[in-house]
Amino acid sequence: MSTANQTITATPAAAGRGDVADWRPEDEKFWDATGKKIAYRNLWLSVPALLCGFAVWGMWGIITVQMLNLGFPFTQAELFTLTAIAGISGATMRIPASFLIRLSGGRNTIALTTAMLLAPAIGTGIALQHPEWPLWAFQLMALWSGVGGGNFASSMSNISTFFPKRLQGTALGLNAGIGNFGVTTMQIVIPLVMTISLFGAFGGDAMVLKKDSGWIFGKIAAGTPTWIQNAGFAWVLSLVPLSIACWWGMNNLKTVSPNTGNPITAFAKITYLYTLAFVPSIAILYLYLPKPTGLGLLNMWVAIPLDIIAALLIMKLAAFGTMKENIAKQFAIFRDKHTWSMTALYIVTFGSFIGFSMALPLSITVIFGISHVPDAAGVMQHTLKNPNAPSAFTYAWMGPFIGAAVRPIGGWISDKWGGSIVTQIISAIMVVASVAVGYVMMQAYGSAKPEEYFPTFLGLFLLLFAASGIGNGSTFRTIGVIFDRQQAGPVLGWTSAVAAYGAFIAPVVIGDQIKRGTPQLAMYGFAIFYGVCLILNWWFYLRRDAYVKNP
Predict the structure, then answer these.
(1) What angle do CA 173, 179, 180 make, to 5 degrees?
(2) Which has the higher per-residue pLDDT, 15 or 512?
(3) At 380, which helix (H) or strand (E)?
(4) How far separated are the first and last CA of the chain, in Å rounded?
(5) What are phi and psi of 24, to 5 degrees?
(6) How confident is the model over 167-201, as pLDDT tens digits?
(7) What is the C-alpha separation between 418 and 380, in angstroms, rounded?
(8) Is the pLDDT of residue 76 over 50?
């Protein structure tokens, strides 16, 4: 038997307990004999772990609506801050998360970061039993939930190392696409578990709805008992077994992560870098959020770049030993212009997906749950309850569901036709759809019967979600073509980190414009950005003398 064959035969045994020393996915014989089985096992464990990460990160989009229905003593603007805080925290956590696989190994990282989700899940469940607690307590839980958002960067970076380039679009599309179902799963599961005493006496008492609520099958009338704390507690049932399964079933690729150290050392590095990520988030949010929570000194468009820069600087300055050397190597991606072009394009796709997912439930509630009528002086008022209002819980899940469902299709189509041409088509669709949905929002926000505009509003938003989902797959495919294996993982993590700020931007921008009475301006602004990126994609990857022709 040849040496090569001996290596291939030995690899499965090595793979069974964590570390894989020999990994050659581009070698077809190795892939067929050994690699395929290991890669797909890691993928199918990664997917549900990522799904739960998205669920915990995105749950504040649903929780805030129910807090409003239960009469928690906070304004609509204050509730919008909870989704925004979860958004900025999750985005910031992705910056260190994009470097964790090389530093600590895939198995170590995914198992521990999945277990970390238990803290915000349990903490949120406890906080929601106390509506008398101050706003900052709920903001702290939203901040902590950002751990789930950070997990996406490490998950995608990890899976990219397991598959050959010809399959990366499909593999990453499956991981991200099914993982993104965490948003839909959360939007379906949370309204359901809030209707029952899931844990009996251990789960706490019910509260009574003061306003109509709902779930996917329709409305739930005011006066109905509700266990809002189950929105956090329910995830414990899946996170515990998933953490154990990831530890026993996943692998560290030593060709990618040669200096992880023992598991305790790897865990310490992960915890250290994740903890550091909270520092810039807390500091920037304190400067950004209005009084009394913060100082209200920064504009959002200043706060986000400062947060990114602060997170990178803290991570670089605080690193030591081999960690410092590895981070320095991965910072090389910032010298490549394609890192920046792909970052902008991924904001169009994933940034839109997660941003709209966060903002849509409360937007439906505020725009369509109220009859917009002028007072005696002719001034438009937005306070009268709309008796025919659609329930956000009944419809909001549809957009993330479609966006996640088509994401693997986007990866598959891009593997066949080329990522950039697919990105170009969906960008054009998003320009038109954004303008159209903005116009419909304007009409609804000035109508005594806004529900008449809801079917058109929902249909256009579903189109936006579908386009962004397909684009998620196409942009990841383009990254796999442009960058080599060592760079692709960190670039995937970095682009996903910056795009995740969409979860912060969309709720803030849409919320601010609703408060000003001009919700359409938010969507028109997004359309302008999509148009700029459409030109960027053509210039870099589709024109005759493009930097990288793809196709």
Answers:
(1) 90
(2) 512
(3) strand 380-385
(4) 42
(5) -135, 70
(6) 877 787 788 778 878 888 888 899 899 988 888 87
(7) 49
(8) yes
User: Distance between CA 221 and CA 422 in Å, rounded?
Assistant: 44
Report how far apart, in Å, the C-alpha atoms of 411 and of each of 109, 132, 198, 492, 536 are. 25, 47, 38, 14, 20
Host H or E run for residue 165: helix 165-193
What's the CA gap between 122 and 58, in Å, rounded? 15
Task: Determine how many CB atoms are found less than 10 A away from the CB of residue 297.
Answer: 12
Per-residue pLDDT, 331: 81
Task: Identify whether the C-beta of residue 81 lies closer than 8 Å to the C-beta of residue 61.
Answer: no
The strand pair at 218-220 and 213-215 is best described as antiparallel
Residue 168, classified by CB atoms within 10 Å of its CB into exposed (0-12), middle (13-18) or buried (19+), is: buried
- For residue 455, what are the contacts with CB-CB under 8 A and spacing of at least 6? none
DSSP string, 207-226: EE-SS-EEETTEEE-TT-EE
Confidence bin at 522 (pLDDT 50/70/90): very high
Burial of 206 (0-12, 13-18, 19+ CB in 10 A): middle
* 194-218 average pLDDT score: 85
User: Torsions phi, psi of 213, nearest 5?
Assistant: -120, -150
Is residue 365 within 8 Å of residue 68, measured between CB atoms? yes
HSE (CB half, 13 Å, CA atoms) of 64? Answer: 32
H-helix segments, 253-397:
263-288, 300-318, 321-330, 337-346, 352-368, 392-395
Q: What span, in angstroms and rounded, lies between the C-alpha atoms of 91 and 4?
A: 43
Phi, psi of 235 (to 5 degrees): -75, -15
**Residue entry with tokens 């969309």:** 506
User: Which residue's entry shows tokens 């170009």?
Assistant: 424
Residue with tokens 């790897």: 266
Which pLDDT score is estimated for 3?
37
CB 12 within 8 A of CB 34: yes
Find the radius of gyration of the CA atoms of the chain: 23
Q: What is the largest CA-CA distance in the chain?
A: 92
Give the mean pLDDT of 406-433. Answer: 87
As a whole number of angstroms, the distance between CA 239 and CA 366 comes to: 33
What kind and span of H or E run contains 19?
A: strand 19-20
What tens digit of pLDDT does each residue of 442-489 get?
999 888 899 999 999 999 999 999 999 999 878 877 887 888 767 777
pLDDT-based confidence at residue 238 (cuts at 50, 70, 90): very high
- The crossing angle, in degrees rounded to 10, of helices 165-193 and 454-482 is 150
The DSSP output letter for 23 is -
Within 10 A of 202 (CB to CB), how many other CB atoms are there? 8
**How far, in whole angstroms, is CA 35 from its chain's centroid?**
29
**Closest by CA position to 356, among listed 402, 394, 305:** 402
Q: Are 58 and 220 in contact (CB under 8 A)?
A: no
Amino acid at 131: P
Closest to 469 in 3D by CA, of 387, 544, 409, 534: 409
* Tokens at 14, concatenated: 């090595």
Confirm if 279 and 314 have CB atoms less than 8 A apart. Answer: yes
